[in-house]
């Protein structure tokens, strides 16, 4: 009876501990997105895993959700932010097509991760220079992303070296 009681008490704690340690075992880092900028993909306050990337080792891929630091975007604070890679070096991006979509290299793109009622604000065109990325939140109406920083040095683009992780979304 005593062994059964120990098993009944210990197993749930072990299982819970394995779930928490699972991220560390896989080498992922845990982040919590405090804002609504990535909804509906990542809801405010939700925790997600990200595969860490050494500075300078990120190989840009359109559609990646990345964790990055860009202190100039946050009044000098070196706080991690989360956005989606929409354009990579050599791309030309603008908004909007006749039906209100983002235009990448002359073609309106499909963005199934956006909320059905998402509205775009016109911008661009912007050519993404070598070594830089165009990042946007999935909640376009509430995201201070590349569009908001067009007047910054870099014309709204972010150095790829600012990426510190790639989200692993389930």
UniProtKB/TrEMBL annotation:
Residues 1-23 form the signal peptide. It holds the Pfam family Peptidase_S26. It comes from the Bacteria. Its EC number is 3.4.21.89. It is a single-pass type II membrane protein. GO terms for biological process: signal peptide processing. CDD domains: S26_SPase_I. GO terms for cellular component: plasma membrane. It is an enzyme of class 3 (hydrolase). Residues 25-168 form the Peptidase S26 domain. Keywords: Hydrolase, Protease, Signal. It catalyses: Cleavage of hydrophobic, N-terminal signal or leader sequences from secreted and periplasmic proteins. PROSITE patterns: PROKAR_LIPOPROTEIN (PS51257). It is found in: Cell membrane; Membrane. One of its GO terms (molecular function) is serine-type endopeptidase activity. PANTHER family: CHLOROPLAST PROCESSING PEPTIDASE, SIGNAL PEPTIDASE I. Belongs to the peptidase S26 family. This is Signal peptidase I. It comes from Actinomadura montaniterrae. The gene is lepB.
